[in-house]
Write a structure and sequence with these properties.
Elements (H helix, E strand, L loop, with lengths): L3 E9 L6 H9 L6 E2 L12 E2 L13 H6 L2 H16 L7 H6 L11 E5 L5 H12 L8 H5 L3 H10 L5 E4 L5 H14 L5 E8 L4 H9 L27 E9 H6 L6 E10 L9 H15 L8 E3 L6 H15 L7 E3 L2 H4 L4 H17 L1 E2 L15 E2 L4 E2 L4 E8 L3 E8 L1
Parallel strand pairs: 4-5, 4-6, 9-10, 9-14, 10-12
Antiparallel strand pairs: 1-7, 1-8, 2-3, 6-7, 8-15, 11-13, 14-15
Helix pairs in contact: 3-7, 8-14, 11-12
Length: about 425
């Protein structure tokens, strides 16, 4: 089996329109959450969201393409191009890209796997309103909102001709995309894959849909996302994208590529239990299976980047699953919850948190969990609330989606 490393990262998040900016703001304990601005959401009781700010798609797409394609594709393409640049696969030529949005070749054999839970839901909502007013939908409506189109546009712009897949497994979509890319490279089916997640769900139907299910916080300020806190009442819906470049280790070494971390294990298992209610046993099985796949025991894990969405049941169930796997050590093992700063970017969160786990291993620093005023006694975990420099070798990143789809990846320094 081949070794698999992360050689490039790109992201667009509510914290910053690039990965390094997002990472630095997380180390500061900054929040990317606020009351919705410029959207038809003000009358809803779930007014705090994680909006992407300061993002300009023009270096990546022509004006016509920007009109045709949903923002979830804009974010994905930008993250993929930034990841390619970060991995040393593209020259840093923003001026040329601005003049000609078609991106230079990055290698025909590269693959693309991108996850999304909601795809082009905002464009579909606008088209529904237009149809109700008697206007004919755009001929680009169907292709421009299809979940797999994010991967397809990335493949077109980077001129790749390897595997091209869209994955939709609810909140686990981004982690599943990275995990499946890992499996392909490890088994020798590919040598390089762009993998990640992307979402643009901040429209009225998206927010009210999650809100009506009881999943969203009703708090009205930036502290609304408070994983593991006694007063948490739901997650904060957010948008964004994160794409990682995964490569076979020896191929990366041959071209002197930068390496963030190595992926050593992956599992994706179903609870087989409920539409929305998570199950401790299913999450614990997924965590244990990822460790088994990595060939390491629970005692080898130094840090856990938790799914931790800030829902009362979800956080408690995850804490119980960690105790089931790690026993008494679960109360001492460092845990962080990055959605306290980004909100829940759905598929994008899984990929972004894997990227941040890789950065934590590389720089040996854990970003803080913010908004934790009083820890819930039922979540007996060592939640890190200040940036912490710790020696780390192995870390886990977990994503748990509606329908009981669990994805866990194990990374190594």
């Amino acid at each position: 089996m081949q070794r698999v490393v992360i050689t490039g990262i790109g992201a667009v998040t509510p914290l910053a329109p690039d990965f390094r900016g997002s990472w630095n703001r997380m180390l500061e304990g900054a929040s990317g959450l606020a009351r919705a601005a410029g959207r038809d959401l003000s009358s809803l009781p779930w007014s705090v969201v994680g909006e992407v700010k300061g993002f300009d798609p023009s270096p990546y797409l022509s004006e016509k393409e920007r009109r045709q394609l949903d923002p979830f594709i804009h974010y994905a393409l930008a993250a993929a191009v930034m990841a390619a640049e970060d991995a040393g696969l593209l020259p840093h030529i923003p001026e040329e890209r601005a003049r000609s949005p078609r991106i230079a070749r990055s290698g025909e054999s590269s693959g693309v796997i991108i996850g999304s839970s909601r795809g082009g839901i905002g464009t579909l909502e606008r088209a529904l309103h237009a149809s109700a007013a008697g206007r004919r939908p755009s001929p680009f409506l169907m292709p421009a909102t299809t979940i797999s189109m994010a991967a397809s546009i990335i493949a077109q712009k980077l001129r790749t001709s390897g595997v091209c897949l869209g994955i939709s497994t609810a909140c686990a979509s981004g982690a599943n995309a990275v995990g499946e890319a890992f499996r392909m490279i490890r088994s020798g089916q590919a040598s390089r894959v762009f993998a990640g997640g992307t979402e643009a769900p901040l429209c009225r139907i998206g927010v009210s849909g999650y809100g009506s299910s009881g999943a969203l916080s009703r708090l009205s300020d930036a502290s609304a996302s408070r994983p593991f806190d006694r007063q948490r009442d739901g997650f904060v819906l957010a948008e964004g994208a994160a794409v990682l470049v995964l490569e076979e280790y020896h191929a990366a070494r041959l071209r002197n590529a930068p390496v963030y971390a190595e992926i050593i294990g992956y599992s994706t298992l179903s609870d087989g239990h409920h539409l929305t209610r998570p199950q401790r046993e299913g999450e614990a099985r997924a965590i244990s299976a990822a460790l088994d796949d990595a060939g390491v025991g629970p005692e080898a894990v130094d840090y856990i980047n938790a799914h931790a969405t800030s829902t009362p049941l979800g956080d408690r169930t995850e804490a119980e699953a960690l105790h089931q796997v790690f026993g008494r050590r679960a109360a001492r093992l460092p845990v962080s919850a990055l959605k306290s700063m980004t909100g829940h970017m759905l598929a994008a969160s899984g990929a972004f948190e894997i990227a941040c786990t890789a950065m934590s291993l590389k720089e040996e620093i854990i970003p803080p969990t913010i908004n934790l005023s009083e820890k819930d006694p039922s979540c007996d975990l060592n939640v890190i609330t200040e940036p912490s420099c710790l020696p780390m070798t192995v870390a886990l990143s977990s994503s748990f989606g509606f329908g009981g789809i669990n994805a866990v990846l194990a990374l190594k320094k």
